[in-house]
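Message: A physicist's question: would you kindly supply an amino acid chain plus fold tokens?
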Amino acid sequence: MTYARISHIAEYAGQEVTIRGWLYNKRSSGKLAFIIIRDGSGFIQGVVAKNAVGDEMFELCNSLTQESSIIVTGTVQDDPRSPGGYELQVSKVELVYMAEEYPISLKEHGVDFLLDHRHLWLRTPR
């Protein structure tokens, strides 16, 4: 098993690697889930196909909270549409620690909510 840093992912194109990091964001569309993983060196998108990982692991991906600690194994594929030019075709997701719900997510929030949570709002990328 090869552990890879996201900043060096180009070196592993076409190979199976394991990335240890945190869930930055996720979205799901039917039988596909897209997870954005960060490891301190960069971000990569992982594509989780329900038929490739099974129902139990697919449900785990859908239940993950932002900043949960995970270990993801998959094949690195060249994809010019992805940020960084590569994505991970996920074959395995392992939960290390489920993070508590973070009150400020990437969705839009009202001004009152943001002012009540301004100590967290200042730490978001927007």
